[in-house]
Model the fold of this input.
Amino acid sequence: MVRLIACLGLGAFLSAVVRPTYGDITVFSNAREKILTEIFNGYDGKIPPNYDNDTPVKSSVQIYIIGIDSINEATMDFSMSFFVRQRWVDNRLNYTPTLNMSRLELDTKRMSNVWVPDLYFVNEKKADVHHVTVPNKLMHIYPDGLVVYSMRVTAVFSCTMDLQKYPLDDQKCYIVLESYGYSTETLVMRWHPNPVEKADNLQLPQFELQNITDYICDVTYAGVTYTCLKLELFLHRNLGYYIIQVYIPSFLIVILSWVSFWLNVDSTPARISLGLLTVLTMTTQSQGAKASLPRVSYIKAIDIWMSTCLFFVFAALIEFAYVNVLARVDQRKVNSVTSKLNEAKEDEEEKTQNQQSWCFTKLEDKERARMLDKISRAIFPAVFLVFNIIYWLVYVFWEPSPAA
Done:
């Protein structure tokens, strides 16, 4: 019992020491309000820092990538969620810290009173600053006038893609940041020493983000130079989805069309059904593979593959048509011989010679049809194998020349 009372007494003592009192909180709050009142007294957020000194404000920019949501080839753009962080010094916001106050953390209502760089994204199609449950913005002011400003943005950026090697391609997409109204005489933006940070769980469904390169790209409009920053995102397309959904099915359809070479020459219903089935299936497969692609004027790798596969299944159908024509010609010859033999009044020996002659012709034409099937069994797979070797060697190692 005595030990319990002692423990309770020690806990109350520690709570009293560690927990700030209401009076301490009030003093801290009053000091903060006093500092804010002092620094904003006579402060004009419409005028940039160093305006009177004719020296540019140097702003440091950093981007933290939360996620790349989608990359759309049809519209040639990509969607990304990120934090954009900026740092600059505004000497008008200097203050003397009190009560171990390391920085001032402003709420969104106070942020509107502070001057911020007029950064904008040049290649942005659509962008939103998140407002759930409050505007996702952050601003800290340090005693030496350093301002740290951050906001969470989801934006859709345009990305001009070269799809000549699609889907064995790599893409380079850009994020371009500029000052909209301030020239380099007033504002200079430069990348932070660590310009880009990525979330640990950053993953893309069809691409792999291999490299990010930062550039300084100051531009001149109408004789006035504006500050500009650029990020280059190197994206490598993962081929697994296309192997499973495009290449393997079309490969099997081509092989299926070769089954008709092993069917009997007289199996017309079976061979024509197989030929039409493979042609229609290949056509549907080709349309589905290219449905999500833009209508570009150049030829893509997927176009070469699908067109060649369609050619092979169509050629197998044409081969059957030729073999069927040979068989029908033979049948007409046999019917003609039978009619002549019934009407002729020649002697038995002459009839026997005619029958042997026509039967030899029939056997010769049948052998030609069967021989064509046997040749096709070897020629079609061999040519398709050669095409595959050339196709994969070219599109794996070939790099298209960059557009001018």
Summary: Helices lie at 2-18, 22-40, 108-111, 240-257, 268-289, 301-343, 348-397.
